[in-house]
Amino acid sequence: MVLCKKWVLAKAFHGKVTAENFRLEEEDISDKLKDGELIAEAVYLTVDPYMRIGIEAGNVVGNAMGGEQIAKVIVSKNKQYPVGSIVRMRAGWRTHTLVTDAEKQIQRSAEMGDLPLSLMLGAMGMPGMTAYFGFLKICEPKEGETVVVSGAAGAVGSLVGQIAKLKGCKVIGFAGTDEKCDWLKKDLGFDFAYNYKKVDVDTALKEAAPNASVDCYFDNVGGMFTVKVLNHMKLFGRVSICGSISNYNDTSLPTGPLPFFNILKSQLKIEGFIVMRWYAIWEEGEKAMLQWIKEGKIKHREQVTNGFDKMPEAFMGLFEGSNIGKAIIKV
Ligand SMILES: NC(=O)c1ccc[n+]([C@@H]2O[C@H](COP(=O)([O-])OP(=O)(O)OC[C@H]3O[C@@H](n4cnc5c(N)ncnc54)[C@H](OP(=O)(O)O)[C@@H]3O)[C@@H](O)[C@H]2O)c1
Fold it and tell me: CB–CB of 76/53 below 8 Å?
């Protein structure tokens, strides 16, 4: 028998996420495997904001929380994945997983050489592909253009800003602490970075993008912040709606102000997306990100929480801004 720990959703989310939403349970997994089966032990897990709203997470009370992990095969009757193989899979918040259908349960992943395995949950995983496709396909940035990124010091935003710099754009980031803003400017090369908790958005954008000169806006936060940014868009500006974290804990949808007149006046293109729409061409994004990372053109930073028992804490931290870069759990 292999003892598995798992975090289940104890109570449906409503409003702010609290420790009461989660319960730690144990289960025994039989190690008497059939041909083709294997057991994998989690090495790194991820917490992501989408787990709060259920898109792709499929949260069900009583079930383990959904999500990806990097795991090591510890028992195997599968020739393709012998003991010691490293795999990425959507196994959820659990320490051990019985894989009965490796083809379906294990995700293909790029050969990363010496790079850290946890990158497969960050810059080389879903957040990296979100930044790559969600920015390049929707904003279609051109050299010399001005790009605004909200949630700029997080997993996705920090990559979007760097990709924008690689494309020759002027980049303006907004994040929730001075430490995050310093990192964006000094280490990642953002041209401007503002602490949105201290600085008025309109004042900041009048300075960094005078006369409504924002060409592209990559939005991770939504709400009033985004309504304000729309006032600073240039004619034919492009807006990629990636996330709306400022609303995820709301119990009712915000009702206004409605920015339609500004959208009309500036003839904006605004498009929401779920990154899985590009899954068929994932390889293109992985290849580009891998090359940029290896060449040192894209920097990656992780906020590592040690201990599976602290997963809920790390997850709740996303809504308090406690992470810089990608939030990762090391078992
Ligand atoms: N569309 C897709 O397919 C897709 C895929 C991945 C992620 N996303 C979305 O992209 C966004 C970023 O995801 P991520 O994984 O990169 O998370 P993240 O940015 O690494 O972590 C969340 C960050 O959001 C900020 N935040 C929390 N509450 C906020 C609020 N009320 N107002 C403004 N900012 C707030 C915090 O930073 P501060 O200190 O700056 O406040 C926090 O660190 C999320 O909205 C997520 O749902 C969408």
Answer: no
Q: Kindly list the protein residues whose Cβ atom lies closer than 6 A to any atom of ligand 1.
A: 48-50, 127, 130, 151, 153-157, 175-177, 180, 220-221, 242-246, 273-275, 318-319, 321, 323, 327
One-letter amino acid for residue 120 of the chain: M
Task: Output the pLDDT for position 258.
Answer: 85
pLDDT digits (tens, 9 = 90+) for 175-193: 999 999 999 999 999 999 9
Please report where in the chains the tokens 């401007």 appear, as a residue: 192
Q: Per-residue pLDDT tens for 308-323?
A: 999 999 999 999 999 9
Residue with tokens 């930073």: 301
Residue 111, CA distances (Å) to 119, 130, 260 in order? 11, 20, 45
Q: Is the four-CA dihedral 152, 154, 160, 164 of positive or negative sign?
A: positive
So what CATH class is 2-122+301-330?
A: alpha beta
pTM of the predicted protein model: 0.97
Tell me the CA–centroid distance for residue 243 and ligand 1, in Å. Answer: 7
Nearest CA to ligand 1 atom 5: 130
Predicted local confidence at residue 132, as pLDDT: 98
Pick the CATH number of 126-276 from 3.30.70.580, 3.30.450.20, 3.40.50.720, 3.90.1170.20: 3.40.50.720
Q: Where in the chain is the domain with CATH 3.90.180.10?
A: 2-122+301-330
Cα(128)–Cα(97) distance, integer angstroms: 25
